[in-house]
Write a sequence for this structure.
């Protein structure tokens, strides 16, 4: 009997054009076994203040999770990093609980939860964080990661509100953002925002900085793969190359007996890559 196709559900802001491409690119990179990635778009009224935009998406997210559950997904991710953490520590888990409740108890997570788990899985305690955000969002992110047990050595922002002023950021600006925030004592750099086209730069940045570089979409994919029983293919940074398990004691991870589809094993050489080039270019059909 054919193995069921593992499926992942992702809720993205309606103004985000990068997350879907990154997730599709990573799904296509899993060899010899199809992975389904299904999306719902949460409407964002860009005329509202940013905090109200976040609440608008969060109010709509449970209904989107219920709809994605009808596609047979093993897990649903709320893929907006800043909307996951702006209400403070623990809010990410409350968001996930609400999504799970509306989708018949299926596992759910947020990108903020995924980033925390990914960094802990890599053994990171001291981190630098590169963001495109406004100052108040930057400070909320610092507090969130510090509460999650990290020493944030540096964090920066580009004062961008969202939409095209984030997803049109070019490679040079992104590389400069990471260079400006990295510190010798940082054990990793987290590049925050699911609408930031950073996935295609991960291998280059890791080689240049000599440490793991974790992006929002990369961490979200890794976390969903953990729950859905998918083994990611190497090629988009150390997180997916090493594919460490969900760290003990970090909430939001796999629940025995829930995920379906079984492990999907990589079938090609470790040097194979999802990139180089921009995330958007590599994700295109």
């Amino acid at each position: 009997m054919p193995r069921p196709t593992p499926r992942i559900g992702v809720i993205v802001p309606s103004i985000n054009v990068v997350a879907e491409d990154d997730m599709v690119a990573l799904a296509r990179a899993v060899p010899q076994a199809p992975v389904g990635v299904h999306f719902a778009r949460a409407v964002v009224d860009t005329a509202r203040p940013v905090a109200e935009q976040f609440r608008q998406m969060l109010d709509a997210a449970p209904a989107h999770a219920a709809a994605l559950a009808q596609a047979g997904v093993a897990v649903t991710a709320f893929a907006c990093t800043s909307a996951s953490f702006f209400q403070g520590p623990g809010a990410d888990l409350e968001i996930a609980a609400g999504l799970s409740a509306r989708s018949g108890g299926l596992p759910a997570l947020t990108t903020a939860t995924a980033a925390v788990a990914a960094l802990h899985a890599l053994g990171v305690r001291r981190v630098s964080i590169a963001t495109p955000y406004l100052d108040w969002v930057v400070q909320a992110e610092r507090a969130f990661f510090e509460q999650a047990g990290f020493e944030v050595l540096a964090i920066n922002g580009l004062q961008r509100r969202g939409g095209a002023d984030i997803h049109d950021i070019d490679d040079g600006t992104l590389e400069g953002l990471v260079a400006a925030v990295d510190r010798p004592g940082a054990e990793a750099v987290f590049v925050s925002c699911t609408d930031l086209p950073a996935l295609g730069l991960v291998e280059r940045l890791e080689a240049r900085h000599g440490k793991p570089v974790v992006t929002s979409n990369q961490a979200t994919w890794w976390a969903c793969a953990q729950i859905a029983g998918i083994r990611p293919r190497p090629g988009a940074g150390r997180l997916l190359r090493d594919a460490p398990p969900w760290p003990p004691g970090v909430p939001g991870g796999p629940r025995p007996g829930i995920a379906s589809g079984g492990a999907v094993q990589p079938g090609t050489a470790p040097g194979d890559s999802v990139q180089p080039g921009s995330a958007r270019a590599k994700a295109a059909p």
Observations:
- The chain has one domain: 7-283.
- Strands lie at 7-13, 36-42, 75-78, 108-110, 126-130, 151-156, 188-191, 213-215.
- The first strand starts at residue 7 and ends at 13.
- The CA atoms of residues 130 and 191 lie 5 Å apart.
